[in-house]
Every structure is written in structure tokens, then in C-alpha cells.
From TrEMBL:
PANTHER family: DEHYDROGENASE/REDUCTASE SDR FAMILY MEMBER 12, DEHYDROGENASE_REDUCTASE SDR FAMILY MEMBER 12. InterPro entries: NAD(P)-bd_dom_sf, SDR_fam, SDR_member_12. The lineage of its organism: Eukaryota, Metazoa, Chordata, Craniata, Vertebrata. This is Dehydrogenase/reductase (SDR family) member 12. Gene3D superfamilies: NAD(P)-binding Rossmann-like Domain (3.40.50.720). It comes from the Eukaryota.
Amino acid sequence: MNAVWFVKGLQEYTKSGYEAAAKHFTPGDLEVNLSGRSFMITGANSGIGKATAQEIANRGGVVHMVCRNKGRAEAAKEEIVEQSKNENVYVHIVDMSSARQVWEFVQKFTETHTVHVLINNAGCMVNQREVTEEGLEKNFATNTLGTYILTTALVDALKKVEEPRVITVSSGGMLTQKLNVDDLQFEKGTFDGTMVYAQNKRQQVILTQRWASQHKEIQFSSMHPGWADTPAVQLSMPSFHAKMKNRLRTEAMGADTAVWLAVSPSAVKQKSGLFFQDRQAVSTHLPLASSRSTPQEEERLLAVLEELALKFKP
């Protein structure tokens, strides 16, 4: 399965894959004025999150950057404002791996702000098993539980606005994984950070499908940015980065589909719950792969997340 996936990646996920796909993009799709619309982006201080924030700010949107590191977030904000000449860019300091912090942030945020579009972009790939202060495995806490709490806690606020959307930046790596509900925090066997990350990304795709069926008023989508040259890839996957360096996409290429899903009128015409690559809905499974989960397994995932979310709710 991994070999099939890697060959697919070399064709589609690289810079040349993006350039081939971009020939079929509708040119006017991103020619929009976003003034009056509010966008929350997690992990917005570098990589795909920052590139997404920049594109939205350039088009006049209100940008709420949700970041962990204040210094890096403020520096990124300055650059975004300088390039876009848009002053409506705000920084919120939240550690997405802390369930309690995520809850507290949403409760405070919704008292004073509206949000039209949520972009779940913050990601974590630690290669050694680490546990947060709340006792949760760090990748799972950030990528899955943090995303679950932020999204479900914002559902009521999103339902009050016109044309609400939620986009989750997943990864094509999830195609190599079948949901494993029996070991969500990787307490058994050898810990492999890349596999854990891909498993979390599969969980995000399933959550997107489930949310779409539960909340018809909101458009939910997940997407694969392709293989992009970002600080996160350099840090978490140094050998992959070194080997693939010249073939990787730019951050803007990686962000393109997230931006398209967040702002373009044609994206809203798509069915809710789908997984996108280069502005196209694509299958969430490789051909002939045994990566499909049962409805019962998916119900269990949701039940575990709901139980953990409530456990840390202030």
C-alpha cells in the first residue's frame, strides 16, 4: 500500500503534480472580496497556515490567527499586514494540544467575535511518544482532539452566519491508514510518528464526513495540500525533505486548495464532507485498499472524543 501511495505521490503531490492540475483551475475562482467575512486559522504563523492567512488578508478578510508561540505569531502577523495592507489581522495564543485551553479560547472568542470560516490547519508530528500535561499523546491531542473540540465548540456560532464553512487540512498520508479505534493514543507496539500522524489525518477525514451529515447548515471539507516545502516538513521529516527538496511544492501551492475551499463561490457548490486535492474531490481510499472503517468503529471514535472533550471542559 505504501509503495502504491508513494508512486501516486510522485505523480500528483509534487510541484509538477500541482502545475499539471492548475491547468484545469477556473481562473476567476479566487477573485473575491472578503471584506466583512471572518476566518479563523489554526497554526497560522508558518507554512500552509501562514500562506492561507496571507491570501485571505490580501482579499480583505478578517483573519484570526490561532497560534501557540506569541513571538512567531506576532512576527507573522506583521508580515501579513505589511503585504496585504489589511489591518484586520488578530493573534490568539492557544496551545491546540491542551483541551482545556481550546475550550477556554472558544468560550471567550464567541462572546465578542463572529466566525464565518474555520480552517483547522495546526498539525503536530512528534517522532517520539510524548504526553501532554493532560496525560494525552501529543499528536492525537493536537491533530484530533484539539480539532474536534475547536470545531464542535464553534458549530453554534457558525450556524448563525451566512455561508459557514469548515476546512480541515488533512494529508494524503491518511490513505495508507485504516482507522484504529483500539489504540487511539498509541500505547501499544513501536511508536512511529509518521504513521501516528497519518492515522490522525484519517481521523480528521472521518470527522469531516460525520460533521457534514450532522450539521447540514455548514459546509465541511477536508483536503490534502500535497508535499510542500514547509518548516514542519523540514523539522519532522528531515530525510524525506532532503531527498525530495527539489520536487516539493511551495507553501502557496500547498495552501491553494484550502484557500479555494474557504473563499470561492464554486467551492460551496460542492457536496459537504468531501476530501479535496488540487480543487477536486478525490477518493478517501486507494484502489483495492482495505482502509475502510465500519460505521461502528466511527461511532466509537466520536464517542471517545466526546468523552475526552467533556472531561476537560471548564
